Amino acid sequence: MANLNLVKTIQENRNLACHYSNYNWFLAGSFLAETGDWLNRMALNWFVFTLTDSPFYVGLVEFCRMIPIMLFTLPGGVAGDKWDRRKVIMVTQIGALLTTLVLAFVIYLGVNSIGYLAGFILLYGIFLAFEIPVRNALIPNILPKPAITSGLSFFSAALNISRMIGPGIAGLLLASWSIPTVVFLNVICFAGSIAALMMVGPVHPRAETGNQLKFGPGIKETVTYFKDHSIVLCLFGLGIVPMVFGFSYTTLMPVFATEVLHAGPEGFGLLLSCSALGAVITSLALGWGKYPLSKGWLFSGGIAAFGGGLILFSYSAFYPFALFLMFLVGMVSQGYRIIERVVIQETIPDHLRGRILSVVMMDSGFIPLGNLLVGFLGETIGAIAALRFMGTVCVITVFLVILMNRRILAIR
Questions:
Q1: Please, where are the H alpha helices in 175-263?
Q2: Dihedral sign, CA of 195, 100, 73, 342?
Q3: In whole angstroms, what is the distance from residue 40 CA to residue 120 CA?
Q4: Where does the Major facilitator superfamily (MFS) profile domain start and stop, copy by copy (predicted)?
Q5: Domain tally for the chain?
Q6: Fewest 10 Å CB contacts: which of 11, 21, 305, 321?
Q7: Which of 6, 184, 178 is nearest to 101 (CA)?
Q8: What CA–CA distance (Å, rounded) separates 278 from 203?
Q9: DSSP string across 129-174
Q10: What residues have CB less than 8 Å from 12, skipping those under 6 apart?
Q11: Is residue 174 domain-shared with residue 223, that is, in the same domain?
C-alpha cells in the first residue's frame, strides 16, 4: 500500500509544471515581462493624458499597442515554427527592451510629440505581437505532456497576477517618481526576463526542424489544418464571440461605477480588481489538472456562464453584490480561455504549434473592435441595455454552436 501511495504521489508530481525547473525559470521570466509591460502601459497612458487631456489620444496609444496583434502574430507564429522558440522570444524581448529604453530617453529629453510616441509604441507592439504565440508555443517544449495542462494554467495565473499588481504598483510609483523612471523599470524587467530565459533548456527537443519553412506555404499549411480539423476551428470561432461581446464590458464599468452603483473611481478600480482576482483563482485551481467536468462542457459552459454573469451584473444595484458578480465573471471568463488553450495545445502537432497558436491568439485583437461596438451601444441604448445585449449574445451563441456541432461537448 505504501509503495502504491508513493507511485501515486510521484505521478501527481510529474503532472505539476512547478516541479520542473525549466518551467519555473520560464514562468519567472514571463511574470517579470508582463509586470514590466503593465508598468510601461500605465505610465505611458498617464503621460499621454497629462500631456493632451484627451481620452482620444489615450485610446490612440492603446490602439497602436493592440493593432499589431491582428497584423503580426501570424508571422510570429511562422518564426516560432521555423527557428528555436526560446531564441525567438529572446530576440523579440531585446527589441522591445531597446525600444523602451529609447522611449524613456525621449520622454526624459522632453519630446512631447504624440506622433513620435505612437510610433515607438507601435514598434513595441510589433515585438510583443511576435512574442505572444511563440511564448505560448514554447510551453509544451519545456514540459512533458502530462504537465502541459498545469503549465498553461499556472502561466495564465502569472499573467493575471501581473494584471492585478502591475497597475497598482504603477500608480504608487507615478505619485513620487518621474514618468521616464517608471518606463525605464520596464527595461529592467525585460533584462530579468531575458536572463531567466537563458536558464531554460528544452526538455523535449522538437520532433521536426522548420529551417526550410517559408511564409507562404506555412500559411497555406495552417489554413489546411483548420479546414481538416473542424473541432479546433469551432473552438477558435466560438472563443472569438466573448472577446468581442464579453471582455469589452470593461468599457462600461466606469458608467456602472459612477451612475448605477454610485461607487466613484475607487469603486471602479475595485470592480476590475475583483474580476482579476477571480481569474487568478481559476488559473491556480485549474493548474492542478483536476477538472470536475469534461473540457468540452467546461469550455462551452464557461462562455455561457460569462454571458449570464454579465446579464446578472446589469441588474445589480447593490455594490457588494456587484463585486461578487465581478469576481464570478472573472472566474468563468478565465476558465473557458484556459480550457480552450489546453485543448488546442493538446490537439495540434508541434511543427504547426506556433502558427496555429498565432491565429488563436489573434482573438485578443478583437477586443478593441468590441470596445468600439459597446461604446456605440452604450451611447445609443444605454450602458445597462448594452451589457444585457452583450451577455445575451454570448449565451445564445453557445447554444447555437452546440446545436450545430455537438462534438464540442465530447472533448475530454
A1: 179-198, 215-228, 230-245, 253-255
A2: positive
A3: 12
A4: 1-409
A5: 2
A6: 11
A7: 184
A8: 32
A9: HHHHHHHHHHGGGSS-GGGHHHHHHHHHHHHHHHHHHHHHHHHHHH
A10: none
A11: no
SS3 of 213, please? coil
* DSSP summary character for residue 289: -
Angle (deg, nearest 10), helices 230-245 and 215-228? 100
Angle at 282 between CA 277 and CA 283, to 5 degrees: 95
What are 105's three cell numbers? 530617453
Same domain as 168, residue 40: yes
Q: Are 182 and 174 in contact (CB under 8 A)?
A: yes
Residue 52: Cβ-neighbour burial (10 angstroms; 0-12, 13-18, 19+): middle
Reading the block at residue 22, the C-alpha cell is 525549466
Which CATH number characterizes residue 203's domain? 1.20.1250.20
Q: Amino acid identity, residue 246?
A: G
- With beta carbons less than 8 A apart as the criterion, state whether 131 and 75 touch: no
Give pLDDT, residue 93.
Answer: 93
377 contacts 78 by C-beta, under 8 angstroms: no
Q: Which amino acid is at 135?
A: R
* Burial class for 2, CB neighbours closer than 10 Å (0-12, 13-18, 19+): exposed
Q: Are 334 and 153 in contact (CB under 8 A)?
A: no
Q: Do 347 and 224 share a structural domain?
A: yes
Cα–Cα distances in Å, from 263 out to 195, 218, 258, 259?
43, 51, 6, 8
Say if residue 229 is in the same domain as residue 154.
no
Which domain range does residue 326 map to?
214-412
What contacts 284, CB < 8 A, 6 or more positions away? 153, 154, 157
- DSSP annotation of 256 reads I
Q: Within its chain, how far is the Cα of 160 from the centroid?
A: 8
Series of mean pLDDT values for 10-residue runs along the chain (412 residues): 44 69 90 89 79 70 77 80 85 92 88 81 89 85 81 82 77 81 91 91 53 65 77 79 80 75 70 81 74 78 90 88 90 85 78 75 70 74 86 90 77 72
C-alpha cell, 368: 478593441
